[in-house]
Amino acid sequence: MLAAVLHAAHDLRIEEVPKPTPAAGEVLVRVAHNGICGSDLKLLEMGLRATTVPHVLTNHCGPQILGHEFAGVIEQLGMGVNSLQLGERVCIQPNYHCGSCHPCLTGFTHLCQIVTFHGVISGGGGLSQFTTIPASMVHRLPDQLSMAQGALIEPMAVSHHAVERSSIDPGEMAVVFGGGPIGIGVVLGLRARGVTNIAVVEPVAARRSVAKSLGAHTIDPNTDDLRAYLSKCGWLGGSDVSFDCAGIPATFGGTLESLRARGRAVIVAGSSAYPLTTTAHLLQHTEITITGSLAFTSEDFRQVISLMADGAYPTEGWVEHIEFGELVEEGFGALAAGRRTKVLVDLPA
Ligand SMILES: [Zn+2]
Ligand SMILES: [Zn+2]
């Protein structure tokens, strides 16, 4: 079968690899579409996450088949799998967890201390014709959802989790920093929750027009005054909730500065490249809350699947398909250059 294998930084090759067989408790999935994530771009830039020491949860290291946002059809069942059937259409919740650390034991498996993801450090990934995955990491797709929509559930679940973390009420106002796929997902998640006052801060015009088409007001940070907009709309003190979906110093600073007293900041895009800078004085004098948001829970997946089946996640204007052979140039290259927003790779049948 064909797979996109990351060998080292800037060395991603589509090559022939052996088709895997499902072990006990696993299923073999024939992948239909796999989305490219910002974290995949980072992997291509930085290289393998595990080169010589296998990850404890997946027992894998070395060259890595990328891809953690995917949907496909169950092609084969491993021993003991009776919760799924051949031919079922599924999407994958790609996070592995240990089950025995403190977060796992207290019900927060997505915060597992040794968390890793399928397609990041694992045997196999979604950017291949087939991959094997534990049956417990699979969600069924309802008939209303296409396979392409199925491949968008993972990133939309990331955004959904961030909206949940904000505890926002429908009458409150939100500012979203960053109009990429996760920012778009936050806008759609907010709208599905009944929030109507949403502003997106995004320097790229094409991304602003997508956010606008989805019902958000848009702000160009280079020319527009967010504060003036907020007070013009009656949000004198600032926003109730602000989301950092870009993860750079300017957006973290903007996220905190845009809040009213006692407002809540949700950090969806965290980078280890920058220390966050603010002052204890600001925190004390505004009583704002800064909240992190990592990945998703199974409940986020279930809710996004249900909301998507109800039409809450339109894809026009921001999701594009490419062929597998175009992966490096039209996928990774175009995303890195800002020429596309979300790319779904169609795997050859
Ligand atoms: Zn991702
Ligand atoms: Zn754990």
What does this structure look like?
- This protein has 349 residues and is of the alpha/beta class.
- It has helices at 38-46, 102-105, 147-166, 181-192, 205-213, 226-232, 249-257, 280-286, 298-309, 327-336; strands at residues 2-8, 11-16, 26-35, 64-65, 69-77, 89-92, 95-96, 116-117, 130-134, 138-140, 173-177, 197-201, 217-219, 239-244, 259-267, 289-292, 319-323, 342-346.
- The chain is built from 10 helices and 18 strands.
- Strands 3, 5, 6, 9, 10, 17 and 18 form a 7-stranded mixed β-sheet that branches. It has a 6-stranded parallel β-sheet with strand order 13-12-11-14-15-16, sandwiched between helices.
- The longest helix has 20 residues, at 147-166.
- The model has no long low-confidence stretch (mean pLDDT 96).
- The structure holds zinc ion (2 copies).
- One zinc ion binds at residues 37, 39, 68-69, 155.
- Residues 37, 39, 68-69, 155 line the site of one zinc ion.
**Span of the ends, CA to CA:** 10 Å
Order of helices and strands: EEEHEEEEHEEEHEHEHEHEHEHEHEHE
Number of continuous helical runs: 10
Globular, elongated, flat, extended or rod-shaped: what is the shape? globular
Q: Strand percentage, roughly?
A: 25-35%
Low-confidence stretches: none
Query: Average pLDDT value?
Result: 96
Instruction: Specify the oligomeric state.
Output: single chain
Decide which structural class fits the backbone: alpha/beta
List the SSEs and their pairings:
Layout: E1 2-8, E2 11-16, E3 26-35, H1 38-46, E4 64-65, E5 69-77, E6 89-92, E7 95-96, H2 102-105, E8 116-117, E9 130-134, E10 138-140, H3 147-166, E11 173-177, H4 181-192, E12 197-201, H5 205-213, E13 217-219, H6 226-232, E14 239-244, H7 249-257, E15 259-267, H8 280-286, E16 289-292, H9 298-309, E17 319-323, H10 327-336, E18 342-346
Parallel strand pairs: 11-12, 11-14, 12-13, 14-15, 15-16, 17-18
Antiparallel strand pairs: 1-2, 1-4, 3-5, 3-9, 3-18, 5-6, 6-10, 7-8
The chain binds zinc ion (2 copies).
